[in-house]
Specification:
This protein has 2 helices and 20 strands. The protein is α/β, with parallel strands linked by helices. InterPro entries: Hexapep, Transf_Hexapept/Carb_Anhydrase, Trimer_LpxA-like_sf.
């Protein structure tokens, strides 16, 4: 659902995919190969939201702000299921974990990782390559090259997802029983813990 607000319409690049069950309102600018999942609320009613190329904002995320603020999710930012970004700046190639909350005027430096369920206080500033966890969130160590490579690989899946949605996602009636030889999705990308076992 794309909504005009105060005579301002969202701008969505033709290669981006906004799920029909997401809501994008007002002064929102969405770049190339961006994925916006179902249930996401991107509210540019009181300020501007810029979602740069290659970002993803997954299911049930909220992006909003106090009046007059511009939020930028820089290139390849990866916003996990249920996360809230409220008036914060998210650096390039950052991973925000599931159900994390990033508060007003916080700054998450490039290539940082914010753990799931973390709470980043208003005005907190984290340098690039910070591993950020807890409530209140703290930097516990530097993000390694191995960690950022793993994150980037996962983000590439989401950068491919808009094209996949345009070619194969369609509303349908459910089957009433499982068909023989039903395909199973490949497991090429592993969780961080599985990767560490190698």
């Amino acid at each position: 659902m794309i909504y005009e607000f105060n005579n301002i319409k969202p701008v969505v690049h033709e290669t981006a995919f906004v799920h029909p069950l997401a809501a994008v309102t007002g002064d929102v600018i969405i770049g190339k190969n961006v994925y916006i999942g179902p249930g996401a609320a991107i509210r540019g009613d009181w300020g501007r939201i810029v979602i740069e190329d290659g970002c993803n904002v997954q299911e049930n995320c909220t992006v909003h702000m106090f009046p007059g603020i511009t939020i930028t999710l820089q290139e390849s930012a990866h916003i996990g299921h249920g996360a809230i970004i409220h008036g914060a700046q998210i650096g390039k190639n950052v991973l925000v974990g599931m159900n994390a909350v990033i508060m007003d005027e916080a700054v998450i430096g490039d290539e940082s990782i914010v753990g799931a369920l973390s709470f980043v206080k208003a005005n907190a500033v984290f340098e690039p390559r910070s591993l950020i966890v807890g409530n209140p969130a703290k930097r516990i160590k530097e993000v390694s090259d191995e960690m950022i490579a793993w994150k980037s690989e996962g983000t590439k899946l989401y950068q491919q997802l808009p094209a996949d949605c345009y070619t194969s996602l369609k509303e349908c009636e459910p089957l009433r029983k499982i068909e023989p030889n039903r395909p199973i999705a490949s497991a090429d990308y592993k969780t961080w813990n599985e990767t560490k076992k190698k």
